[in-house]
Amino acid sequence: MVSNSFLKLTAVGLATAQLGAAQTYTKCNPFKKTCAADTGLNQWQLNTDFTSGSSAFSKWNTTSGSVESTSLGAKFTISEQGDAPTIESDFYIFFGRVDVKMRAANGTGIISTAVMESDDLDEIDWEQISTYDSSIETDYFGKGNTTSYDRATTVDVSSPEETFHTYSIDWTSSRIEWLLDGSVVRTLEYANAVSGKNFPQTPMRIKIGIWAGGDPDNAEGTIEWAGGETDYTNGPFTMYVDSVNITNYNPAQAYKYTDKTGSYTSIKASNSTSSTNLGSSSSSVASSSMASSSSSASKTASSGSAASASASSTMSSAASLSQFCFVFAAGMAAFAAGIFQL
Ligand SMILES: *[C@@H]1O[C@H](CO)[C@@H](O)[C@H](O)[C@H]1NC(C)=O
Ligand SMILES: *[C@@H]1O[C@H](CO)[C@@H](O)[C@H](O)[C@H]1NC(C)=O
Ligand SMILES: *[C@@H]1O[C@H](CO)[C@@H](O)[C@H](O)[C@H]1NC(C)=O
Ligand SMILES: *[C@@H]1O[C@H](CO)[C@@H](O)[C@H](O)[C@H]1NC(C)=O
Ligand SMILES: *[C@@H]1O[C@H](CO)[C@@H](O)[C@H](O)[C@H]1NC(C)=O
Question: Which of 148, 188, 199, 202 to mutate to test the pocket of ligand 3 (most atoms within 8 A of CB)?
Fold first, then answer.
């Protein structure tokens, strides 16, 4: 969801972002077309302990670079220009809570991100800019709307690049909370996101990765936003993710957009993956308990490592590039905010 305006404003050095955005847009956007149903997480909770070995990735796809399990957790490293290791959940959740315990990368211009994204470009973000070792940004987008860039906030956090902190998003149909180590640091009410129009409300995947906003080939504004040029000789730069705990407030096998409104009331959660059967066995989300409070997240967890499916560790470079651009669009948008203020 790199914005068009962003691309227009910054032609230099953005060939990859442009390509990525184009690929993102050719993917089925249910806001514009009829698309296949999303695969849901059909359980209340999924905890992933990334210190537990390669089985930890069974519910995650590596979409760029390589990511391995270590004693400190999943290791995302940038060693040289072009590295942008990224993973994403191989399922969607439909309202829920995501806790990410991570230590951001060090260096200059390296962006550590934990974001949620839907097919119609709703997005909820945490982004740490390594240049600033006492803060992290929150952000959100509705339907890829980047007509204004006033949504990001900066949250103080102590030594995010030296210390593990837990960054959470608790997302219901009425509000989004960002929590730092269990304390709410930002709340977005549905009504305050352009009367809900800009409120993220469609099934989301979880995407985690790092990229070099300070890459010397990036546009000047991007480098500025990232706090300066990345000097790869100071690397490697590594982010560690200890664990990710996910609660899905509407567990289901599939989520189907029943129209092009992009409204949460148009999403049918279903325990049948057969498209012909989606209607009969599905229950409208309106009847599900969507306003679950964060306290319900304490229900019994099942271990992510118990899952048997094996995630693919490599994808085509085209897919990787697309994911790179997709995941990091928020950073681009934040940068564009700077442009607009000029
Ligand atoms: C994850 O990878 C598997 C195997 O390549 C693929 O079938 C699946 O569609 C991927 N999931 C997502 C959400 O892209
Ligand atoms: C996830 O849950 C496990 C088990 O309760 C806990 O040890 C871990 O710290 C949690 N991780 C996050 C990111 O909350
Ligand atoms: C996009 O967001 C802006 C506010 O940021 C709002 O004024 C505008 O109506 C939104 N556009 C659409 C199509 O929702
Ligand atoms: C991060 O970089 C700063 C400055 O280069 C350095 O002082 C600090 O020790 C580094 N922290 C880690 C965890 O490597
Ligand atoms: C689907 O099945 C799961 C697990 O049995 C259950 O928790 C959930 O409520 C079901 N969802 C729907 C939409 O029927």
Answer: 148
Which residue minimizes the CA distance to atom 12 of ligand 1?
A: 90
Under DSSP, is residue 179 helix (H, G, I), strand (E, B) or coil?
Answer: strand
Question: In this structure, how many other beta carbons lie within 10 angstroms of the beta carbon of residue 242?
Answer: 18
Three-class DSSP labels, 283-319: EEHHHCCCCCCHHHHHCCCCEHHHCCCCCCCCCCHHH
- State pTM to two decimals: 0.79
Ligand with the closest atom to the CA of 47: 2
Task: Give the count of domains, the chain.
Answer: 1
For residue 239, give the ligand nearest its CA. Answer: 4
Encode pLDDT of 163-211 as tens digits: 999 999 999 999 999 999 999 999 999 999 999 999 999 999 999 999 9
Domain containing residue 55: 4-341
CA 288 – ligand 5 centroid, Å: 10
CA dist list (Å): 232 to 6, 21, 292, 317: 26, 26, 45, 22
CATH number at residue 70: 2.60.120.200
Yes or no: say if 101 and 144 are a contact pair by the CB < 8 Å rule: no
Mutate to test the pocket of ligand 3, among 31, 122, 145 (most ligand atoms within 8 A of CB): 145
Judged by DSSP in three states, 99 sits in strand
